[in-house]
Specification:
Chains: A alpha+beta (about 650), B alpha+beta (about 375), C mainly alpha (about 325)
Structural class of chain B: alpha+beta
Strand order of the largest sheet of chain A: 18-17-19-15-20
Helix content of chain B: 55-70%
Order of helices and strands of chain B: HHHEEEEEHHHHHHHHHH
Oligomer: heterotrimer
Strand content of chain A: 15-25%
Largest sheet of chain B: 3 strands, antiparallel
Number of helices of chain A: 24
Distance between the termini of chain B: 32 Å
Strand content of chain B: 5-15%
Number of strands of chain B: 5
Radius of gyration of chain A: 26 Å
Number of strands of chain A: 25
Distance between the termini of chain A: 50 Å
Chain lengths: ~650, ~375, ~325
């Protein structure tokens, strides 16, 4: 708790100091200046809030201008490379990947019992259409969206907004102060507000959306609008669509936003963004950000196209679709394509996370998968150095599932536990387990006489899986466990994982750094029942449905759930770290999941004329990709 | 009896004409070689296609040498050992020949152990170098596996898909087309519509829909057959149309009429008279549709819905080569394409030759 | 002739009905639906998709209704010109198709013209100089065209051009032209980019035509009237043009109806590799994402094109070649 208050103080102080130095007339982009002189836009001083956020630049004060070209192969959701350019949250995680710092809320007070959080919003921030952003917008989000039963049939997110099972209480104190009250201590709310959930709160411009909401517009009128558009049957379909919350409409022009860029045009294959003239951040000299005039997002259909655009120098910035496997080729064309390759660190505790399903419907397998000796043997049988040297140029870290070194709960011995290559011990352990008989092909036989074979089902997402798994397969075949690989679609994986049909599942261990480890320690306890979870689907189902479905987990697993729950509510930061370490200790000892290579390098490709991009950093979902690095201060060197 | 001797002399005639078609003969020889390699791939592949030479990742093809570093000449080609190091500036693995020891290439060498057709053990290989040397004729892939040996193993899967698929298409096509041609009427109109529908719908969606519907529990062997069936499900319509129209026109030919008049059973008429009269035609069209199957397999892999590693097929190998690195930095990963082209070319030549030989006045349908 | 066309039209309607059902069914064949795809996609970058989001999306899109109801809703719309809405693009399907169709037609027509311009002279030459070196070269090149997997050819051509000439042939326009309004410079820029896809897509078709046309021309050359004409001392090229070539052209001309839709579907994979702004990549993406109204409408459209093309071809054939029996 002390730590948190301290950091709040420190952050508030920084803002204060910086804002006093910036207390002179602000400057703006030439493009906006023209509009101001044409009378199309109010002057920059009127557009900026009382206390704009001052962003420290990485290299130097930037030049205005330029359009950034990026490609996206994702659908029109926020997953594309534009995502990091367009998110603004209530709070933010700092570049250390751990500390929570102010963003839209310039300060906050969390009560000692962690049941009340008061957020002080920046005064005078305006939506991109010039309408002030106030506490009313937050109230609209909570009362008219999250608590509306037609929009959210099963209520707001339970872990974040309903700690202890009760929806939080949101109260407007004045136009720029909001108070959140919880029925149980919820200290981790700050971490939630620094990630995606804190962004989701700021997505609801009341002045625009109320025309689609029955509380503010008579139902008859809404029904007329719904009837006029054959895309909708119900008012809430239209509402969510207009709010950019339905399928793939994250980038819809015309919706007011608080982000650095706003969508101005959307056509199949190309989305055009332009700077938000009301953006509420400035550099230390008072220049309104962003420096870049606009962004063009080109939608392409496959990764090869993105990679070819990278080497031909058509991509100004790409950290989303690069692959270490292509590094040699990126290097080969570095000069011709006029770009530089920045080596960031991926946020994956392990790039390929191996999960033995302990609740899989096969009694013989279940007995094995639940035996720690089996999991240790399988871990020792993997030659991680070979994976590292073959696929990661030796730059990754051979390890088992655990958090990364940036985390406050990091302990090297957890990460190294059973991560060495020791096939002899692996064979000995497997023999001890009653797998000592072999068939004519040299594979072990299970106690019931069948060949000891396992099937890994996986899909390709985020990190490359196939090459690593081909190696793992070879390593396991070599200790007599016949392994087959099956690549399936994301969709199918989701269905089969939820239905407990996957014997050995694969994921990637994000959530291995502080922004997400405490709130979502998915790999260490059965707290989520979804596609990412194949270690104990039935136990996870039991926990998430409060015992209505699934299977009750054994005592040692309930202990993990206990630790997780305590970690969520303790107001003592030291105790939280201890609890986090307990989860990691249990994992290191029990190997619920196996790791391969973690902390691997991540190539971020930047055109040479694009500056203010940090030379190195962490890259990935945990920090919301580029969000900690203030992409709004990237700029193109003026010619 | 008369029919037999007639068809015998007919096939002799066809063969004679066929041998005069030079490209077709060349194609036939290539195909014979390909299938020999496919049948005995364990023996013909110099290295284990699954073995990873971890210190030889992305090694370029090993040059075959006749002249050694001292200028000595030997008729028997040899290779040098290779040393590798990783350049952390360019992230490129550099391979330099180690000229201290020569490894001559020999026939019938002992190498890694395998089970021929899964039945008996051996370690005899058609050619190779002594242990310690490394002979990567077409380089290695991202895990250090020998590309040449993988292509050889891929031959077995890719070429058999063509054969099995075509046999299936032929079976379905003969039966459906035959019934359709004989029993005009409702059955005929229905099959005609079905054929028209299948031929009108673009192939890619059909492939994707069907292959995604393959049960996820299937093992690679079943998936292999599933994919073959999918390819042939779309391929039979051509045969059926040809058979149908032949039946329709043959029904009115004199020799068939005569057989009917002589009281022969319908079955006998079909098997003794109708089928022999157009079987050569069907064989030709079948030969010409095998290449479609082989290319179809690679297209399925491109779309990510075909066979998958660790199964080795040409499509799988090409799919792994579909990235900027393969084209720019490690071009030897594209060599499976050469074999695809060669096989398809050979089939086309043979089919063309057969057509010319069987019916020199026919136009292409 | 009139009754033949009417009968064919009636058949066509039955076929189209069947096609519409198949188009819709094959999208439903893979497990899951767009919602599962969307959820998988959200979770793949780490978002925790909770029940509340799933429930609200499911209700919003009515994806839980029985398939046949979804089909009738869709086909009812199609008959009134409303193809539904794409989940993936949040845009009316008709708009998406209309936006990509012009470029698709430009590329397909260009390919068709290219195919004929290359194939017809070569095949005439090959037939006249049968078994000459030129004939062999033409045949082999033609066959190679049939044998190379098109995606690979596209990939290799694309990178060779960048590597050796520094030209990026990906897409239909260079980056600086993509934004520009239509002008001569832009048309020229497009032509510069057009020929790689043209070659790649046209390759197989060219080879096919060379084979057919060479064979037909050879047939005709063997006939008596040609010998007669030659013996009369009529110049060789006149003999050639007057009849054999014309006869050999008949089947080629009359199959245009088939060719065009074949090219449109054939471009899919190449368009993905070369990043062309045409229908193929959208169709593929729609199929992968199970974006059912978009994918279904696309398949229906392409199939209808083929059916109509076939009908036109058959009618043309009947006109050109009276020997064809009209049954």
């Amino acid at each position: 708790m002390k730590r948190l208050t301290l950091s709040v103080l420190a952050a508030a102080l920084t803002v204060l100091v910086l804002s006093t130095c910036a207390a002179f007339a602000y400057s703006e982009a030439p493009m906006l200046k023209e509009r101001v002189s044409a009378g199309l836009l109010p002057a920059v001083d009127e557009r900026l809030p009382e206390n704009p956020q001052v962003v420290e630049v990485v290299e130097r004060i930037g030049d205005y201008g330029g359009v950034l070209d990026v490609s996206s192969i994702a659908s029109d959701s926020f997953l594309g490379p534009h995502g990091f350019l367009m998110g603004e949250g209530m709070l933010r995680t700092d570049t250390d990947y751990s500390t929570v710092v102010p963003n839209m809320a310039e300060s906050w007070e969390l009560s000692d019992d962690a049941k009340t959080l008061v957020l002080h919003l920046r005064k005078g921030v305006k939506w991109s259409d010039g309408v002030p952003f106030t506490a009313d917008d937050i109230m609209f989000w909570w009362e008219d969206v999250e608590m509306n039963e037609e929009i959210r049939p099963s209520g707001p997110n339970r872990r974040v907004w309903q700690p202890g099972g009760e929806p939080m209480d949101v109260r407007k104190i004045d136009d720029y102060t909001v108070e959140l009250t919880f029925s149980q201590p919820h200290p981790l709310i700050l971490r939630n507000l620094a990630h995606g959930h804190g962004m989701a709160m700021l997505d609801w411009p009341k002045h625009y959306l109320k025309q689609f909401h029955p509380k503010y517009t008579p139902m008859e009128e809404l029904e007329k609008m719904v009837a006029a558009d054959d895309a909708y049957d119900q008012w809430y379909q239209m509402f969510l669509d207009k709010a950019r919350q339905s399928f793939s409409v994250f980038l819809e022009p015309g919706v007011p936003t608080l982000d650095a860029f706003m969508v101005t045009e959307k056509e199949p294959g190309l989305i055009r963004l332009e700077r938000n003239p009301y953006y509420w951040k400035v550099d230390a000299e008072g220049n309104q950000l962003p420096y870049i005039d606009g962004v063009r997002v080109h939608k392409v259909s496959n990764i090869t196209t993105v990679n070819s655009k990278i080497i031909t120098g058509e991509e100004d910035f790409n950290g989303f679709h690069t692959s270490l496997q292509q590094l040699t080729t990126y290097k080969q064309y570095e000069q011709q394509g006029d770009y530089r390759i920045l080596m960031y660190k991926g946020i994956f505790g392990t790039e390929v996370l191996i999960q033995f399903n302990q609740t899989y419907d096969d009694p013989v397998w279940q007995k094995l998968a639940r035996d720690v000796r089996f999991r240790r043997a399988m871990s020792l049988a993997i030659n991680r150095d070979e994976i590292n040297n073959s696929l990661y140029f030796g730059l990754g870290e051979p390890r088992n599932t655990s958090v990364l070194s940036s985390s406050v709960v990091y302990d090297e011995k957890f990460a190294k536990s059973y991560a060495q290559y020791d096939p002899d011990t692996a064979n000995k352990l497997l023999d001890e387990l009653g797998l000592d008989k072999r068939d004519s092909a040299g594979f072990r036989l299970r106690p019931d006489g069948k060949r000891m074979s396992i099937t890994i089902e996986y899909c390709e997402a985020d990190t490359p899986k196939t090459p690593t798994l081909e190696l793992v397969k070879a390593h396991w075949d070599a200790v007599g466990v016949s392994t087959s690989l099956k690549l399936i679609s994301n969709t199918l994986e989701t269905e089969r994982a939820m239905a407990n049909q996957i014997q050995v599942g694969i994921h990637h261990a994000d959530r291995s750094t502080d922004p997400l480890f405490f709130t979502e320690p998915f790999w260490y306890a059965p707290i989520v029942h979804g596609w990412e979870q194949n270690t104990w689907p039935l136990w996870a189902q039991w926990y998430t449905t409060k015992g209505r479905a699934g299977e009750e987990p054994p005592a040692h697993v309930k202990h993990l759930l206990d630790v997780y729950e305590k970690m969520q509510i303790t107001t003592d930061e030291v105790e939280r770290i201890e609890l986090g370490k307990e989860l990691l200790r249990q994992q290191a000892d029990n190997l619920w999941t196996l790791g391969t290579i973690g902390s691997a390098p991540y190539a971020v490709i930047v055109k040479n004329n694009l500056r203010n991009v940090p030379e190195t950093g962490w890259w990935g979902w945990d920090g919301y990709f580029g969000y900690p690095y203030h992409p709004e201060q990237f700029f193109f060197v003026a010619e | 009896m008369a029919a037999t001797s007639r068809s015998l002399s007919h096939s002799q005639l066809v063969w004679r004409r066929f041998t005069r078609h030079k490209l077709a003969m060349a194609g036939l020889i290539i195909l014979a070689l390909f299938y020999l390699v496919a049948i005995f791939c364990e023996f013909t592949a110099p290295l284990d296609p699954l073995h990873r030479y971890s210190s030889h990742i992305y090694a370029p093809p090993t040059p075959l040498r006749f002249i050694d570093s001292e200028g000595g000449f030997s008729l028997r080609p040899f290779v040098y050992g290779i040393k590798s190091e990783l350049d952390m500036q360019t992230f490129r693995r550099i391979y330099v020949p180690d000229t201290s020891k020569k490894y001559p290439i020999r026939f019938l060498v002992r190498g890694h152990e395998y089970r021929m057709w899964g039945l008996f053990k051996s370690n005899l290989h058609l050619f190779g170098v002594e242990p310690g040397g490394s002979l990567f004729l077409l380089g290695t892939d991202e895990l250090g596996r020998d590309v040449f040996s993988r292509i050889i193993y891929g031959t077995r899967i890719s070429l058999s898909i063509g054969l099995i698929g075509v046999t299936l298409s032929l079976g379905i096509g003969l039966i459906v087309g035959g019934i359709s041609g004989l029993k005009a009427g409702t059955f005929d109109s229905i099959t005609q519509r079905v054929i028209e529908i299948i031929r009108s719908v673009p192939h890619i969606p059909l492939w994707m829909g069907l292959s995604a519907a393959l049960p996820p529990d299937w093992n690679p062997i079943k998936v292999y057959f599933g994919i073959t069936v999918i390819l042939s499900l779309l391929g039979w319509t051509h045969v059926a149309r040809v058979v149908r129209s032949k039946f329709l026109s043959l029904r009115e030919e004199d020799f068939v009429m005569a057989a009917y008049a002589a009281g022969s059973s319908e079955w006998r008429i079909i098997t003794k008279h109708l089928i022999p009269s157009f079987i050569s035609y069907v064989i030709v069209s079948v030969t010409l549709s095998i290449p479609g199957m082989i290319l179809g397999e690679t297209a399925l892999s491109f779309l990510g819905i075909g066979l998958r590693p660790p199964v080795i097929s040409w499509g799988v190998l090409l799919q792994q080569a579909q990235n900027i690195s393969a084209v720019n930095t490690f071009p030897w990963l594209l060599t499976p394409a050469f074999f695809v082209v060669l096989a398809v070319l050979a089939f086309n030549f043979v089919g063309d030759g057969l057509r010319d030989a069987a019916d020199p006045y026919s136009k292409q349908i | 002739m009139g009754s033949y066309i009417i009968r064919r039209l009636a058949y066509m309607l039955i076929t189209l009905l069947g096609i519409s059902i198949i188009s819709f069914t094959i999208i439903q064949l893979p497990p899951g639906d767009y919602l599962t795809t969307y959820i998988a996609q959200l979770s793949s970058s780490g978002t925790v998709v909770d029940d509340s989001l799933v429930a609200s999306l499911e209700r919003q899109y009515g994806l839980d209704r029985p398939i046949y109801i979804q089909y009738f809703k869709w086909i009812g719309g199609v008959l009134t010109g409303n193809f539904g809405r794409s989940f993936d693009w949040n845009e009316a399907v008709a708009v998406l198709i209309a936006e990509r169709l012009p470029m698709t037609i430009v590329i397909s027509l260009a390919t068709l013209v290219f195919t004929y311009l290359v194939a017809i002279p070569i095949s005439i030459y090959s037939a006249v100089k049968q078994y000459s070196i030129g004939d062999y070269i033409a045949t082999v090149i033609g066959f190679i065209g049939l044998s190379v997997p098109d995606f690979l050819l596209a990939l290799v051509l694309m990178f060779s051009f960048y590597r050796f000439f520094g030209i990026s042939v990906s897409g239909l326009f260079s980056p600086e032209m993509r934004e520009a309004a239509w002008s001569w410079a832009k048309i020229k820029d497009m032509l510069d980019h057009l020929w790689v896809p043209m070659i790649v897509i046209g390759m197989a078709g060219t080879a096919g035509i060379i084979r057919t046309m060479r064979a037909t021309t050879l047939d005709e050359l063997g006939k008596d009237y040609v010998k007669m004409a030659r013996s009369k001392g009529i110049p060789e090229w006149k003999v050639l043009m007057r009849h054999p070539v014309r006869v050999a052209l008949n089947p080629i001309i009359s199959t245009i109806g088939w060719e065009l839709p074949r090219i449109v579907s054939g471009t899919t994979i190449v368009a993905v590799v070369l990043n062309l702004p045409i229908t193929g990549p959208i169709l593929l993406q729609a199929l992968q994402a199970q974006d059912m109204f978009l994918a279904g409408s696309f398949i229906l459209m392409l199939s209808t094109l083929t059916v109509i093309g076939t009908l036109i071809s058959d009618i043309l054939l009947a006109i050109f070649d009276p020997r064809i029996r009209l049954d």
